Amino acid sequence: MVLQIDFNSDEALYMQLRNQIIFGIATGRIREGDSLPSVRQLAEYVSINMHTVNKAYSVLREEGFVKLDRRRGAVVALESDKKRVLEEMREEIAVAMAKAVCKGIGREEVHRLVDEMYDLFANWEESME
């Protein structure tokens, strides 16, 4: 698993780890049913505290990306609660849109960016060929 963690970022390490795993799932590098590394293995690999990895895994579980299995550890299992996901996206996008308005970024630029990001993940496997 390739992870890019920025130790100089203001973003919490557990959130960076969570985001990297979600990017891996979205791009197909991590597939449903795959076991993620153990908390200890991933902590050693990334050189972070095990509690940080545990928190990232807990958030991923709460958000419906993984299930915690006693024998296999954290396993990618995508919960398809579309209504909840859309509400979470609404909240996250609201902050991004408020930033855009404050910084004078226009509707067309926002639409172009959203299309670009969606295409990046929706067509990831095609772009890798």
Task: Give structural notes.
Strands 1-2 form a two-stranded antiparallel sheet. A hairpin with a 3-residue loop joins strand 1 (66-69) and strand 2 (73-76). It has 6 helices and 2 strands, in the order αααββααα. The mean pLDDT is 91. With 129 residues, it is mainly α.
Task: Provide key terms for this protein.
Arc Repressor Mutant, subunit A, two-stranded antiparallel ribbon, globular, 6 helices, 129 residues, mainly alpha
- Rg over C-alpha atoms, rounded to the nearest angstrom: 16 Å
User: Can you tell me the CATH architecture of the largest domain?
Assistant: Orthogonal Bundle
The fold-level CATH name of the largest domain is Arc Repressor Mutant, subunit A
Largest sheet, if any? 2 strands, antiparallel
What's the helical proportion of residues? 55-70%
Beta-strand percent range: 5-15%
- Structure classification: mainly alpha
* Total DSSP E strands: 2
Total of helices: 6
Tell me, briefly, the overall form.
globular
| First-last Cα distance | 20 Å
